[in-house]
Amino acid sequence: xxxxxxxxxxxxxxxxxxxxxxxxxxxxxxxxxxxxxxxxxxxxxxxxxxxxxxxxxxxxxxxxxxxxxxxxxxxxxxxxxxxxxxxxxxxxxxxxxxxxxxxxxxxxxxxxxxxxxxxxxxxxxxxxxxxxxxxxxxxxxxxxxxxxxxxxxxxxxxxxxxxxxxxxxxxxxxxxxxxxxxxxxxxxxxxxxxxxxxxxxxxxxxxxxxxxxxxxxxxxxxxxxxxxxxx
Length: 231
What we know:
13 helices, 2 domains, Serine Threonine Protein Phosphatase 5, Tetratricopeptide repeat
């Protein structure tokens, strides 16, 4: 039986799976065609009882990776499963784990808007400046999606956050907030000290992506004189 088949059995009859794993404990390490283990599936789906059973049987399952290099913790974050994440972390899961694209649990939680998970990971010391393979930070993701509430949590965290970090295109979070017209994010970033002058690889500043009205409002807030848009 593959991992997904075992997971489906757990949905139908958990006690039967428990008996099967007791008779054949090696089944706990079975994987499917995507290299996902039973713990991966249980974590993604938020099956805390199954997660506890598997970790009791074999704590080493925490380090299992699927074909994207995602750990069970990363999948729990992707699925918004805070209770499972707490179990995994309490058993030794590393909150700094990344998949092959450089995505961490905190980055997924920010992208998906799971505020409770972001708060939990920050309390556990997750790096607010973590970057993926495109050099995007959590602020880049939040600026794109417009989640000002979570952005404010990161900015107010005890860690010193990089407001002006540039991604592979040279965009700062403020560039993206202006491009996506997420005005609340624009306001928060500017008020927090983000630079309006940094140029991306297209030689554009954040202001070049703003409407004339928003551009004036930002410059007035910063007490700066109007300057021509970059060409």
